[in-house]
Amino acid sequence: MLAIRAFLGAVAGSMTSPLRPGDFRATINPLWSRHRLSGRVEEISPETSDTSTIVVRPGLGWRGGLAGQHVGVDVSIDGVWHRRTFSLSSPPGRPDGLIAITVKARPDGAVSRHIVHALRPGQTVRLGHPSGRFVLPDELPDRLLFVTAGSGITPVMSMLRHLAEGRRMPDVFLAHSARNASEVIFGEELRRIAAQFPNVRLYEHHTRPAGGRPAARLTMAALSAICTDIPERMAWVCGPLGMVDDAESYWRESGISDRLLTERFHSVVSPGGGQGGRVRFIRSGRETTATADVSLLAAGEEAGVLMPSGCQMGVCHSCLVPLVDGRVRDLRTGEEYGAPGDLIQTCVSAPARDVDIDL
Amino acid sequence: MAAPTPLSAGDIEELGEELDRLRAEVLASRGEDDARYIRRVIAAQRGLEAGGRLVMFASLLPPAWLAGTAMLTLAKILENMEIGHNVLHGQWDWMRDPGIHSTTWEWDSASPAAQWKYSHNYVHHTYTNVLGRDRDLGYSMLRVAPEQPWRPVYLAQPLYNLALAVVFEWGIALYDVEIERAWRREKDLDETLSHLGGALEKVARQGLKDYVVFPLLAGPAFLPVFLGNLTANVARNVWAHSVIFCGHFPDGTRTFTEEEIEGESRGEWYLRQLLGSANISGPPALHLLTGNLSHQIEHHLFPDLPSNRYAQIAPRVRALCERFGLPYTTGTLPRQTANVWGRILRLALPGPTRSRTGETSPEPVIPARAA
């Protein structure tokens, strides 16, 4: 059976050479290509004033993912493909085969704004494969703690939906921080789950409650007074950098860092230093110049080089490429580094001076 | 560069700035319409190819053979000219579509894309019409410029140029391996052998598809399908050969010496591209089938602008030529083809050897008018 399939595959491959059979199928329907995974937008529904959920039908070759994982999504804007990484908000293995991402339009984010405001059902997006270790373990712990802020709720929503579908809901404490009640992404569904399952507790922290004065941020110190059994819980924390840093030091000081999984949104980019320089992409024969505050990823994309990319904030390591020559600067720390052969993260590295990249 | 025209250094600089502006304008306006254009051409090409091959399975009926062969020929021409050549130039890289990108594309031609990109994009487009540097000047086997010294072998060039036209893609594949440079010890032997291996592998895959797999699948129609594929390949070879020869070898185009291009400025580079290239005039369908190499002048000025934009900027390039008193060589396909063949016949014989300094215009210039 396998031999016959391999033979038929080889015949089909030699018929379409130098293209692949999938290239011809994709010409009819982009979803029919296995090696270039695409999806069709089925539905877009607003969650809050600036956040929408995009429901996508993935094409052939989609292998599914785990609750909490993220996926690279490419959208075409003015004929140019842009990749960004988003957490899946849908539970894995939906019976209808659909997946969902939930995207917040950032004021300075052209791509996220396009997805929330301009994307329409019927349009095609490209998809990567889900990845990430911010997931539930195979053996579910008895007690779980989720701490999230803003759009940091998305991977946790996927987990909660997955748990809600399961046979047994474990003891869950969810602390979520948002500006006010109406800005809570999935607010209604979260409250419904908390009402439906007696062992799910939802603590909503509002930093700008309606009519009131701005309140403090959600800190671990404050949370430990509300959720008194934190050390006995397995914890997932997802949100802006400050919140995740606070959580990591809390768990470190308690000596239970192994009970914490974190995921950061938003990168912090430090202002320029060094002078930048000429950037050469050896294999593509492209050359450009970039200042010291422009990432190599942005410079390469601008020059028309096919740059591998992912989260755009130095987390997922999808963008690693070998350095041939020169030195680069980490935009997050300002640190200069790089020896020939080093794998560099182009999304958070800028040229410190002239650099050659093996791409 | 020795002045090939009465232009002053200031004029040349101004010409360069005008052309840079034109390029920047097109770059800034690339968008969804252009992306849709190339996707549509690719879809049409794949439809024609699949359709042509399918129809050809019925080719025991002569009309089906004719229709299938015509569709496949058209598909193969589009694939090499408007799609392959231009994608491999990086004209569509700005879309960042991994399926339509110069670094991932492989084309339906005997020459592997990587080797062709080197010999074409780099050698030919950088050293366009420079004697001793541009290997496309006569493809190391033809005397197409009077400045090339005559050798007895050129007596046979009308014959072997005809043969080259028939086997053009195979000729290009062999030519991209640069065996003659290895022979002269200018190219490393191991590298040449590895290139040769790559080319042979590609040649085998191409041959397997057109001359073994599809004929076998056709069963009783083995021979008609074999012949149909052969016809399509030969027709495309002759077509590509004609279009490409009309690009740099008709009267009105000129060659340059290595001394002339020493220390060449951006403006002088543009000028050389302009003087070394010739267009083909005709209807939009002709431009599509030539892969817009009918706008050879615009293509050589801006090799990486999307091909659908050449027709759009051609009137402005032409107006610039008129303003600076430069020739803008163009003519219909039959006229330019006859002209090139006339030159190949004439230069098969010894002489004329014109001054290599390029102080005078080597050929009567076809004035800029609709041909």
Brief account:
Chain A has 359 residues and is of the alpha/beta class.
Characterization of the model:
The complex is a heterodimer of chains A (359) and B (371). Chain A is α/β, with parallel strands linked by helices and 359 residues long. Chain A folds into 3 domains: 36-127, Beta Barrel (Elongation Factor Tu (Ef-tu), domain 3), CATH 2.40.30.10; 143-264, Nucleotide-binding domain of ferredoxin-NADP reductase (FNR) module (Rossmann fold), CATH 3.40.50; 277-357, Roll (Ubiquitin-like (UB roll)). Chain A has 8 helices and 19 strands. In chain A, the strands form 4 sheets. A 6-stranded antiparallel β-sheet of chain A has the order 4-3-6-1-2-5. A 5-stranded parallel β-sheet of chain A has the order 9-8-7-10-11, sandwiched between helices. A 5-stranded mixed β-sheet of chain A has the order 13-12-19-14-17, with helices on one face. In chain A, β1 and β2 form a beta hairpin. Chain A is globular. The mean pLDDT of chain A is 91. Chain B is mainly alpha-helical. Chain B has a domain at 32-107 and 204-232. Chain B contains 14 helices and 2 strands; from the N terminus they run ααααααααααβαααβα. Chain B has a two-stranded parallel ribbon. Chain B is globular, with a radius of gyration of 21 Å. Chain A binds chain B through residues 11, 14-15, 17-19, 23-24, 26-27, 36, 76, 78-82, 283-285, 301, 304-306, and chain B through 30-36, 42-43, 46-47, 50, 90, 93-99, 101-104, 106-108, 121-122, 202, 205-206, 208-209, 213-214, 217.
